[in-house]
Amino acid sequence: MSLLSSEKLRHFHDKKLLLAFSGGADSTALFFTLVQHNIPFDIAIVHYGLRVQADEEVAYAQALAKEHALHCHLLKAARIEQNFEYEARHVRYGFFEQLIQEHDYTHLLTAHHLQDRLEWMLMQLCKGAGLAELVGMQESETRADYTLCRPLIECSRDEIISFLKTQEIQWFHDESNDDPSYKRNYFRHEIATKLIQKYDTGIKQSFKYLEEDVKELIKDVQVHEAQEMSLFICTGHKRSDIFHIDKILKSKGYILTAQQREELKDHDEIIAGRKFLVVLHRGIYYIAPYLTDIMDKGFKEECRELGVPVKLRPYLFSNPLAFILFTRFLPCNINMHGK
Q: Cα(first)–Cα(last) distance of the chain, in Å?
């Protein structure tokens, strides 16, 4: 029994892979799927220090890595006092991306599955979202320095559990996943799981059709980054541009509100949550932390001559590499017809 097709598995053979591991059923199933098909990879696990069982999960990860001659990266995170889901995700992906840069991993693998995808869609639907946000999780997403892959995205939770039981593989159950105070758990247990148990074939097919529709709707862009600033050339389609802005900010730990998405339709510049500046200038979108630092007169004059957006200047003053990236795109700016 295999959870992944031969075609999907072949894609990973010549890549340098980092698996986000927790010891739970999903990541454990993906771990053993890769091992059984002789695909090299390393694992990364985060210990949040909130559950006694987490010590066992870390020990299990380290034992598996040793047994299969893999490297296990461990982060013991600082205690998170509030907004746990949001902050934990920020810590987790920050750790993964640091490892990717330090060890030149080409792909980050996560064990998101069909229930995760449906939960996301339902939560977005209830918040107010468009088609691209409803589809949400893609099997493969290109980031600045790596590719994020979710190989199990078409697998149901029941298929994953069946795989583990058939192979007699140990895994851990995180009881916090049963806590109804977390919004995601409500959608999982009350809606998503029940729907998939009855209609899994139709749901899988629907996601395939929706992915095809999104590809027609959303135009690809190449995102350039330096320090904490990202930029891309506008596509000429607001829907696509806002989708990419949302995606970039999400990678930085910030989620746009529905109101902010609406503002971006009519404004070339917004400050999101007093944290990030989003500005369209001469056909290029810039996304950077919002700063109000004092600049010296010489830099102000240089910015004026170059036509740097006023609110972007303090960040560029404090981050020379980002300023270099800005100047690299000046010829492109001059030739664009945007504002």
A: 56
In the chain, where the domains are located: 6-214, 224-335
Average pLDDT per block of 10 residues along the chain, 339 residues long = 88 95 97 96 95 93 97 94 84 94 97 94 87 85 88 95 96 84 85 94 94 88 91 93 91 85 94 95 95 92 93 96 91 45
How many whole angstroms separate alpha carbon 74 and alpha carbon 63? 13
Contact 23, 60 (CB under 8 A): yes
Total residues belonging to the chain: 339
Instruction: Tell me the C-alpha to C-alpha distance, in Å, between residue 46 and each of 23, 129, 152, 220, 253.
Output: 11, 31, 21, 32, 17
Q: Which two tokens stand for residue 322?
A: 């980002």
Beta strands in 208-272 (DSSP E): 224-226, 229-233, 269-272
Q: For 6-214, CATH number?
A: 3.40.50.620
| CA torsion through residues 239, 248, 89, 47, sign | positive
The token duo for 41 is 């990879």
Structural contact between residues 16 and 107, judged by C-beta atoms closer than 8 angstroms: yes
Q: Is 62 exposed, middle or buried (0-12, 13-18, 19+ CB in 10 A)?
A: middle
Residue 44 identity: A
- Could you give the CA distance from residue 50 to residue 66 in angstroms, rounded to a whole number? 25
Strands 17-20 and 107-109: parallel
**pTM to 2 decimal places:** 0.81
Instruction: Judge contact between 105 and 18, C-beta under 8 A.
Output: yes
Report the distance separating Cα 290 and Cα 292, nearest Å.
7
